[in-house]
Amino acid sequence: MKSKLYLIPSLLGNDDAARSLPAYNLAIIKSIRIFVVENEKSARKFIKTVLPEKKQQELEIHILDKNTSGEELHELSKLFKRGESIGIISEAGLPAVADPGGKLVRLAHQNQVQVIPLVGPSSILLALMASGMNGQQFMFHGYLPIDKFERKKVIQKLEADSRKNNCTQIFMETPYRNNQMLEDLIKFCQPSTSVCVAANITMDDEFILTQSIKEWAQKKTDFHKKPAIFLLES
């Protein structure tokens, strides 16, 4: 048998699996024994949540995170020679999208291993869908700089580039710094620039709102410790 590499979406939070994942995904998870994951504890919790009958002690778990070395990645690629299907699970959402799993996907292609992406939630695309912003031209930038001076420069550049190229700019922040991010956007952007904050996507207290910087400055908000995506259009 030839190995296959399944890209298995995980939940974005404590949301209902039935809302976010098709039944086909559960059948794939049930059939796989070997998983490459970003975090073992959260990956096991995810598998137990969506498939409680699957025996945890039978799982073979390997770690692939931002600290995985080239040598360790080479060792992971040896899994492809075992003829078993492998599943990648990221910390949240889609594997290989803003996620280190993409490194193993590249190696799979180099080893002629079939890569199979499964349907599931992406906070980035769900936020873009719901923002009302340009879905034809958009860029994702991951995390912006923490340094205040550098962050100001990047925010103002994103705003200028959005205006010049008619492009939606998408980025994220560590949840405990969300409020600071919004404060910086209000401080450094033009009043007419539109910003969308999409927090706790797919969860019961989901919040998605697009309005101008001027309107955000007049609104009381608190996104502390809530996973969020920020979108900007100027």
What does this structure look like?
With 234 residues, the protein is of the alpha/beta class. The protein has two domains: 4-117, Cobalt-precorrin-4 Transmethylase, domain 1; 123-233, Tetrapyrrole methylase, C-terminal domain (Methyltransferase, Cobalt-precorrin-4 Transmethylase, Domain 2, 2-Layer Sandwich), CATH 3.30.950. Helix content is 36%, strand content 21%. Strands 3-2-4-1-5 form a five-stranded parallel beta sheet, with helices on both faces. A five-stranded mixed beta sheet has the order 6-7-10-8-9. β6, α7 (148-165) and β7 form a beta-alpha-beta unit. The N and C termini lie far apart (52 Å).
Mean pLDDT: 96
State the total count of DSSP E strands: 10
* Overall radius of gyration: 20 Å
Taken from the alpha-carbon principal axes, the silhouette is: elongated
For the record, the CATH architecture of the largest domain stands as: 3-Layer(aba) Sandwich
In short, what is this structure?
By secondary structure, the protein is α/β, with parallel strands linked by helices.
